[in-house]
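To whoever picks this up:

The nightly regression suite flagged Phosphoglycerate mutase as changed. Nothing in the input moved, so I suspect the structure step. Input below, exactly as stored in the fixture:
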Amino acid sequence: MPEERPMPRLLIVRHGQTEWSQNGRHTGFSDIPLTEHGLQQVKKIAPHLVGDGLLIDPKNLCTAFVSPRQRARKTFELLFEHIGELPKHVFTEEVGEWDYGDYEGLTSAEIKKLNPTWNIWNDGCPGGESVEAMEARVDGIIKKVREHHQQYKEGKVDTRDVLIVAHGHFNRVLISRWINFSLCLGTHFNVEPASVAVLGYNHNSLAEPALNGLNLSAVFA
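Regenerated output under the current build:
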């Protein structure tokens, strides 16, 4: 019998530290650069996680979806800097951060002064994305990823993995929706700056999505 091919995976990365992520300000569309520490975070983990035979193996990547914000773009570039070549990719708002609308740039404490009962997981963001809009956007990108994975399982392509480089709230929502839970489960996932998570499947079945690993880069921090 021919050897069964490995199951496809979705690799998700949160960008490195920014000034606003450090002080807790909600950063959606604001184009905040990485801090020097954020740059070093990504540079430190890249050689351990990206390369031939490593977790993020360029030869296994069919495509990468990258948020257009400079903090995500720079993280993506630094991950592959030591390789000397970027994998096939697209910069897309589909994986941009939750649109915080009226709460952009505010800390949670500042938001609570305006709206004491506010909870993003239940209420969304006034002037920005509702819970329903965020869930629909994330579901859309999951659909695209699973189309890539289906093609691989059917033997139509040889590359099995998809990479997403995005943001804290986006990645937490993505994990929740990937495993078929409501968006609000994201509150229970800790997604650190410059962290890597792996989403996959159980029992060799695309019908059984699973969380394989979370904050894997922490071992190199």
